[in-house]
Amino acid sequence: MIKVGIPRGLYYYDYFPLWKSFFDSLNIELVSSDKTTKDILNLGIENCVDEACLPVKIFHGHVVYLRDKVDYMFIPKYISLYKREYNCPKHLGIANMIYHSIGDLPQLIAPKIKLNSNEDFKSAIYSIGKMFTKDKSLLNKAYKESMLSHKKHLDWLKIENMPRIKKLDNISEKIKILILGHSYNIYDDFVNMNILQKLVEMDIEIITPDDIPEKEYRQYSDGFSKRIFWTGGRKVVGAAYALIENKEVDGIIYLSAFGCGLDSVLIHIVEQKARSENIPFMIMTFDEQTGEAGFNTRFEAFIDMMKWRNGFENNISTFR
Ligand code: SF4
Predict the structure, then answer these.
(1) Are 33 and 8 in contact (CB under 8 A)?
(2) Is the CB–ligand 1 distance for residue 89 below 6 Å?
(3) What are φ and ψ of residue 11, in 5° steps?
(4) pLDDT of 114-125, one tens digit each?
(5) pTM
(6) CA distances from 264 to 80, 111, 181, 184, 220 (A)
(7) How far apart are the first and last CA of the chain?
(8) Residue 282 pLDDT > 80, yes or no?
(9) Are the C-beta atoms of residues 114 and 79 closer than 8 Å to each other?
(10) Domains of the chain, first to last
């Protein structure tokens, strides 16, 4: 059976189930790399340019991990997912970066996902499938299955449906924190040092941008005089604005990778909004040097501050 490798990084967290169903339907084995570890990170650091952000380095590590285990390496170029919008330039160029930085690669499959032109996801998917089969009915079936899986995955991403996160009880009593950032920072437990589970164990209710309906966060991200044209940016900003304006969140933790160009703008927009509504806001920036003890101390202090403020000070800061 043909084996196609998919690195567990960047948009893996958004699209893996879609691609898995697609390749399964074509009788092709889709093999993903293991969860990120220190070894995978080190492989990434050794094989990537120094200036890249942490998620891109980690992606390189996953490619090196997989390269001897598969016949093809699958790295879609997610150029645009909506009309008049683009993704971060690193998503656009990741396949080329990999091609030029890592040797002895299996054959690269790097289709362009470019939905701002006349293409839709269907034609993008068909163009990949045609590399392996000419059977139209098989391609149709693969397309339908993949869309179904993608829809299920979007539901699964909602915090209440995540099996690895313990179920919450007494939700209305709890402090509610929005964990903000790009999906690969929120869902890669190695990168964020398992912050979601740690917060739940501290009796905190957590919410992520995936819990906000797409229509709602896109509506909120439309309200700027200068249009936000990064799809990832619209999700981050729109989700934060929706929750802040509807008073549905007590605090925000922004998970950001050092060197992220988009975040340098997005953090500023969200922070301003949070401050204007008196919502506690904290940025957790990580790179390959970040230690877990320092990371834990910072967010634990943030939670303590929130509990103290909510419980004893009637939402007034300590020095007023
Ligand atoms: S959005 Fe930021 S973290 Fe993500 S790939 Fe681009 S620069 Fe890196």
Answers:
(1) yes
(2) no
(3) -75, 5
(4) 876 666 778 878
(5) 0.90
(6) 21, 29, 12, 17, 20
(7) 68
(8) yes
(9) yes
(10) 3-156 (3.40.50), 164-312 (3.40.50.11900)
